[in-house]
Amino acid sequence: MSAIPATPSPPARFTLPAETVLRARERLVLDHFRDEVLQDWDATLSTFPHPHYELIAQMLVHDGDSEVRDYYHDTRAAFPDQDHELITFRHSADAVIVEFWLLGTHNGFLGKIPPTGSKHRTRMTAYFIFDENENLVTERIYFDQLTILKQLIAGLDKRKPTGLLKLFGVLKGMLATAGSKPDPRLSNTTPPNLSN
To answer: Which residue of 107, 120, 124, 161 shows the fewest CB atoms closer than 10 Å?
Structure first.
């Protein structure tokens, strides 16, 4: 009688953690979203052992407590009423993937872009990545900057001199930030090993 060959274990990327782990991750991410809307930065930052954001559209990294607090400050100065509408949650072996709408009214400077007073509602995806000890180590956010900018410009009355002046300020601000170099932590990537 011949032995039945052992079934090889699937690679870790194909194996989801236990449901209790997935539920704990999801709860942490929901708390993170809630605390961001409440602008409770201490609570939001407590969801990470070391805060780390990656904004793929801008190829920017905000790493550490101070940089992430500055990011929170700057985005809430631009959009004081920033909020989220959750669309869906998905789980992977090492992440919670959230699709959501980001909403806000542009009432302050967004980098070098002056306030337009316009509202935006932009669909985004965020990957909340966990390490082998179930610590949240990265929030990686994907979105289309042009979608936001189009909405901010669309709200301007271009028939009035004040609207044209704001449009000129927005274009000038966009050009001032267009030449920034991508963070090498995001641009220097290595293909995954898919052999196991």
So the answer is: 161
Q: For residues 137 and 152, what is the distance between their CA atoms, to the nearest angstrom?
A: 32
Q: Check residue 7 and give its pLDDT.
A: 62
Q: How is domain 19-182 classified at the architecture level of CATH?
A: Roll (3.10)
Q: Under 8 Å CB-to-CB from 154, ≥6 apart: which residues? A: 118
Q: Tens digit of pLDDT for each residue in 113-132?
A: 999 999 999 999 999 999 99
pLDDT higher for 8 or 194? 194
Q: Are strands 119-130 and 136-142 parallel, antiparallel or unpaired?
A: antiparallel
**Structural contact between residues 115 and 106, judged by C-beta atoms closer than 8 angstroms:** yes
End-to-end CA distance of the chain: 30
Burial letters 25-40, b for 16+ CB under 10 A, else e = beebbeebbebbeeee
Q: Would the pLDDT of 185 be above 70?
A: yes
Report how far residue 126's alpha carbon sits from residue 97's, in angstroms, rounded to the nearest whole number.
6
- What is residue 77's DSSP assignment? H
Nearest C-alpha neighbor of 56 from the set 140, 123, 177: 140
Side-chain-side CA neighbours of 84 within 13 Å: the count stands at 20
| Strand pairing category for 136-142 and 95-105 | unpaired
